[in-house]
Amino acid sequence: MTVKIDTLLHESRRFAPTPEFAAQTAATPDLYTDAQKDPATFWADQARNLLHWHKPFTKTLDWTNPPFAKWFEDGELNVAYNCLDRHVLAGNGDRVALYFEGEPGDSRSYTYAELTTEVKKAANVLLGLGVTAGDRVAVYLPMIPEAVISMLAVARIGAVHSVIFGGFSAESLRSRIDDANAVLVITADGGYRKGKISALKPAVDAALQSNDSSVKNVLVVKRTGQDVQWNDRDVWWSDAMETASPEHEAESFPAENPLFILYTSGTTGAPKGILHTSGGYLTQNAFTHQNVFDLKPETDVYWCTADVGWITGHSYVVYGPLANGATQVLYEGTPDSPHTGRWWEIIEKYKVSILYTAPTAIRTFMKLGRQIPQKFDLSSLRVLGSVGEPINPEAWMWYREVIGSNLTPIVDTWWQTETGSIMVSALAGLTETKPGAAQVPVPGITIDVLDDDGQHVGHGNGGLLVVTQPWPAMLRGIWGDPERFKETYWDKFEGTTGAKDGPLYFAGDGARLDHDGDIWLLGRVDDVMNVSGHRLSTAEIESSLVAHSLTAEAAVVGAADETTGQAVVAFVVIKFSQAEIASHEDIVGILRAHVAQQIGAIARPRDIYIVDELPKTRSGKIMRRLLRDAAEGRDVGDVTTLADTMVMNTITSQMKK
Ligand code: WT7
């Protein structure tokens, strides 16, 4: 495990919520004691209190066939109804649901009543295109209200969405569409990013080029007005919406009805389609969104900066906040367009009170300097959240002091695409926080830190983070691959004493318990990188690199990066026959562009080093650990298990060229 833990044991700063804050919070310590008594009953209570059930459930949890859990199995609900109609029926139709801010500065807002009508119309559009319950719909859109409307419309008719981040390439899009056999793609002509128009439709056209695709129609939102190629299967969103009926009654679906698939990287092979279902997922997201952030739906203005293409956007832009009837900001663009104060300007404009973002953004702002946020009125902020990667104490303190006026609670929330919902976090109104710690499991969640034999490591020690009991928002599987689901998450501790009471979910993260038993995340322990809070697999980028005709071999590592947490660094061996064809500089440029084109710009390596050989063990396994040392500029560690102990010397000298 490569872990930086030197400083955390010395962290003695503590930040309790102010007495005023603590006095107004709805969360009470009873949440923990109630949940401890019986987590399943606790979640059943939450499900009944927080959601509307068309048909109440009588069974809470079925864990008789692990790792396949069923929550609230005989209950029926409609996820979109829970996020929309019921708020209108409760008299809150005039409350703003979305304040949309486009990157070029255009803005529009939707009340709950308006959003409900839009989703009803969109549901009718989908039905009109022949989409039925259980069908998969791919969503490839910028961060615009139509993304939220599309997801909710799909959910409303009991279909399954697969949102694909707009930064992914045509190749990535195609493999995801094919894996899920999507019948419809919802996209846009393009979106605005970094002050420029960035096209989306051409990637969809390219992905569907072969004509043997399962996709019958492409619904196209006009966002930028740029020229698009038009095909028989294409339908303009605006044309379809204009004639769609605003009446649509939400039908109920079983609690375990699939809600969405979201692809995420793993250690090997193609991205996994993580499957989430309805009742349990919505319960845990409503609960955590309310209690972690101390949400007051009547008064708060909430802003989660994540794109809907990631799990954070699913759980904490769409489902959690809307289930809770929150008012939120939706921003299309990047933090620095058209100027570096853009986020703070938005917070001032909408009087944002809860901000949920990622450490990589905070570190970028730190580098730019506090004088930028200080030009804006940020006094509306009362809770700050962090997600995606460990937040270093320095960034945590800056976030609190500069953005939070040295007053606001910070909640560092640990979770994953697979967990569906926040698992480890402070509760803003209750927890005395430590800068850099993710703190404690949220009520109803049971976490442990174990050694390789499945033994609890005890306070003061590091090990592997596991979830010991099923939880409502847990993934229900990997789309089409139950074996891979078991192997990837549930086999690690099988047969160990730690698993005697049932299978343990292994998260892939290292963690440490401090002397109080609080949890500190230490990063991934497998070949998965975390770049700007987004998971990328070394294997996937390596296979993209070797797919290029220039490349003989490639090894990819995640190297520490001041801003993005980790950065992609690749070591490539060029085919002998190709080596003289182009300069090193050209080759690096070609390969960087190739990865961006195959996977997406987020996967483009920061550095590519052309080397003669890769460090391998006698059995031929690439020793990425040594390459990571080299990429991070450290002395290279123990090389005695290498087949050729000199190879690292050659590599480090070639890196200097
Ligand atoms: C991986 C999951 C959950 C939404 C964003 C990423 C890392 C996430 C934290 C945190 C330390 C964190 C873990 C995890 N991670 N949040 N607060 N502290 N690490 O979702 O792409 O599924 O990645 O992100 O390594 O396993 P994801």
UniProtKB/TrEMBL annotation:
What residues does the AMP-binding enzyme C-terminal domain cover? 540-621
EC main group:
ligase
PROSITE patterns in UniProt: AMP_BINDING
Q: Which residues form the AMP-dependent synthetase/ligase domain?
A: 89-479
- CDD domains, per the entry: ACS (cd05966)
A biological process from GO: acetyl-CoA biosynthetic process from acetate
Q: Which UniProt keywords apply?
A: Acetylation, ATP-binding, Ligase, Nucleotide-binding
**Per the record, GO CC terms?**
cytosol
Q: What Gene3D superfamilies does its record include?
A: 3.30.300.30, N-terminal domain of ligase-like
A molecular function annotated in GO for this UniProt entry is: acetate-CoA ligase activity
Domain Acetyl-coenzyme A synthetase N-terminal as annotated: residue spans: 30-83
Which InterPro entries does the UniProt record give?
Ac_CoA_lig (IPR011904), ACAS_N (IPR032387), AMP-bd_C (IPR025110), AMP-bd_C_sf (IPR045851), AMP-binding_CS (IPR020845), AMP-dep_synth/lig_dom (IPR000873), ANL_N_sf (IPR042099)
Family, per entry: Belongs to the ATP-dependent AMP-binding enzyme family.
What's the name of the protein? Acetate--CoA ligase
- The gene that this protein is the product of is acs
